[in-house]
Specification:
There is one protein chain. With 115 residues, the protein is mainly alpha-helical. The chain has two domains: 48 residues; 42 residues. The chain is built from three helices and no strands. One of its GO terms (biological process) is sperm axoneme assembly.
């Protein structure tokens, strides 16, 4: 736990240093900007010499539960043994249903626009 606390303190110190460097780089004074560039180069060099932090967190989650709702099209269940003939029948019925709905919607749309 103390190593994590030390890593956190080190991280926060680095954040403060970077914040200061960014403010100096945004300064209108060229002298201040040059000084900030030199300091940033030193900071980067010191980070390369140090050992990188080993603190990591893996939040990978694998969903092992099957979905609660049925995502299959109407009339089509998760049946891997379904024949191609049955599949085509279901597909044709679905296409007919969609065509009927589209025709009704067009009648409603054109009927409402002519009024």
């Amino acid at each position: 736990m103390s190593k994590q606390r030390g890593d956190l303190e080190k991280f926060l110190k680095n954040v403060d240093e970077i914040s200061t460097l960014v403010k100096e780089l945004n300064s209108s004074s060229e002298c201040c900007q040059k000084k900030a560039i030199e300091n940033s180069d030193r900071l980067l060099a010191s980070w390369k010499q140090e050992e990188p932090s080993k603190t990591q967190l893996n939040r990978t989650v694998i969903n092992t539960k099957s979905p609660q709702h049925d995502t299959a099209p109407t009339g089509l269940k998760n049946d891997s043994d379904m024949s191609s003939v049955n599949f085509m029948k279901i597909l044709e019925k679905d296409a007919e249903d969609r065509a009927e709905r589209r025709k009704k919607n067009e009648e409603i749309a054109y009927g409402a626009s002519s009024v």
